[in-house]
Amino acid sequence: PSRTFHGNNRLLTSQIASHYEAINQGQKEVPEYFNFASDVLDKWTQLEKDGRKPANPAFWWVNDKGEEVKWSFEEFGSLSKKTANVLSEACGLQRGDRIVAILPRVPEWWLLNVACMRAGIVFFPGTSQLTAKDIFYRLQASKAKCIVTNDTLAPAVESVLSGSQFLKSKLIVGQGSRDGWLNFKELL
């Protein structure tokens, strides 16, 4: 059984499970192309708009200070589209390009993840515990054209940038600015 919000006892969980079970049993064809952002997030947004699904949070984040970020499916979809535009336009990324994200699990991490799915950009997550040597290895091995991090981790990233031959853009998630970095929140 799944947990429901706002007192509604009927979620589409059973419909989704039966759809994928039908695929597993060969009763339905596996789609040639599947994109979570458009095939799930955008469809759930439309179901809410049509009144066929109750409005529930698509994303609900709470930090250790009790601060919350809560997005509906429509808000999450819209923000992920804007994020995909930031990656494509400001960062110059195209389908198949790679991005390394070294962030703690902040809301922007999920936005970047879904935006990459939406735009066909390959998302390489990295833990915020990586050392400069780890970061350099990941940049080289992935041939990433963009890196995303926060104010705290930017110095470790900057210490290895001179040896990174593929990197074209640097995106920072934070309040301040940093020389040579694009500010995600300002671009969004």
Describe the protein's topology.
Blueprint: H1 13-24, H2 36-49, E1 57-62, E2 68-72, H3 73-90, E3 98-102, H4 107-119, E4 122-126, H5 132-142, E5 146-150, H6 154-158, E6 169-173, E7 182-183, H7 184-187
Parallel strand pairs: 3-4, 3-5, 5-6, 6-7
Antiparallel strand pairs: 1-2
Helix pairs in contact: 2-3, 3-4
- Basic shape: globular
Residue share in helices?
40-55%
CATH architecture: 3-Layer(aba) Sandwich
Order of helices and strands: HHEEHEHEHEHEEH
What Rg, in angstroms, do the CA atoms define?
Answer: 19 Å
Query: According to CATH, what is the class?
Result: Alpha Beta
Question: How much strand content do the residues show?
Answer: 15-25%
Biggest sheet descriptor:
5 strands, parallel
Uncertain runs with pLDDT below 50, 5 residues or more? 1-11
Question: Count the strands?
Answer: 7
Please name the CATH topology.
Answer: Rossmann fold
Question: How many helix segments?
Answer: 7
| Count of structural domains | 1
Mean pLDDT: 87
Please state how the strands of the largest beta sheet are arranged side by side: 4-3-5-6-7
- The structure class reads alpha/beta
Compute the separation of the termini in Å.
Answer: 37 Å
GO molecular function, one term: ATP binding
Pfam family, one: AMP-binding
Catalytic activity: a medium-chain fatty acid + ATP + CoA = a medium-chain fatty acyl-CoA + AMP + diphosphate
InterPro entries: AMP-dep_synth/lig_dom, ANL_N_sf, Mitochondrial_ACSM
